[in-house]
Amino acid sequence: MSQTILRIDSSIKGGDSVSRKLTDDIIAKITAADPGATVVTRDLAELSLPMINGAWLGAVFTPEADRSDEQSATAALSDTFITELKAADIVVIGLPIYNFALPAQLKSWIDHITRAGMTFNYSENGPVGLVDDKRVIVAYASNGTRLGSEVDFASSYLKHMLGFIGITNVEFVAADHMAIDAEASMKAANEAIAQLKLPA
Questions:
Q1: pLDDT score of 137 more than 90
Q2: Are 124 and 38 in contact (CB under 8 A)?
Q3: What is the pLDDT of residues 19-36, one digit of tens each?
Q4: pLDDT at 200
Q5: What is d(CA 131, CA 164) in angstroms, rounded to the nearest whole number?
Q6: Residue 198 — very low, low, confident or very high, per pLDDT cuts 50/70/90?
Q7: How many angstroms separate the Cα of 180 from the Cα of each of 34, 50, 144, 177, 185?
Q8: 142 and which of 92, 119, 120, 176 could share a cystine (Cβ 3.0–4.6 Å)?
Q9: Residue 152 near residue 143 (C-beta atoms within 8 A)
Q10: pTM above the 0.70 mark?
Q11: Torsion (CA) 82, 86, 89, 90 in degrees, nearest 10
């Protein structure tokens, strides 16, 4: 059965984005192995994703049947994001590094999908993720913040938050020294993409 792929882009650089180039290549590899795959794309930079606020909090904690029209409109995007995430078999996330961290728009997406009762619950033993574990491939792009280095505050946060909601199968493809040696950085990333294991 063909898979559903959720692609999340967050770079503000448009066609010059390295993370978008990597997500393009990752998607191309997956769809070559599964030509019938469905790709759902969310471009968070183009979406001008709203940050969560008090009105959002009130809306999402109101049972759907009891929401006002305004609350339903406020909660709609978050509900859609969660539905898309749960429906996906593979999630491909573009992670450009801005000031040693992830872009604000990607953080906002995480805020929208991290909801008690929807993607996690608290139990007597602590939080429990409610999203079925699925494969996540992250395209990490940086001018000089090396993946996993002491100043990389993005990848560990993203991996933690995905694990918090139940997703632990997370792997990274990195072009992480573009300002230092772009050719070598892209070569390493392309080799990592080529080595991604996909079902026959």
A1: yes
A2: no
A3: 999 999 999 999 999 999
A4: 63
A5: 9
A6: confident
A7: 36, 34, 7, 5, 8
A8: 176
A9: no
A10: yes
A11: 30
Alpha-carbon gap, residue 196 to 118, rounded angstroms: 31
H-helix segments, 16-154: 18-33, 44-47, 54-60, 69-87, 104-113
Structural contact between residues 188 and 154, judged by C-beta atoms closer than 8 angstroms: no
DSSP three-state, residue 150: coil
Contact 88, 4 (CB under 8 A): yes
Q: What residues form the annotated binding site for FMN?
A: 11, 17-19
First CA to last CA across the chain, in angstroms? 12
* DSSP code per residue over 113-137: H--BTTTEEEETTEEEE-SPP-EEE
How many whole angstroms separate alpha carbon 144 and alpha carbon 130?
A: 35
Q: Torsion over CA of 80, 46, 112 and 140, rounded to 10 degrees?
A: 110
CB 177, CB 184: distance < 8 Å: yes
Q: Which residue has the tokens 């199968």?
A: 169
Domain 4-53+88-194: give its CATH superfamily: Flavodoxin domain (3.40.50.360)
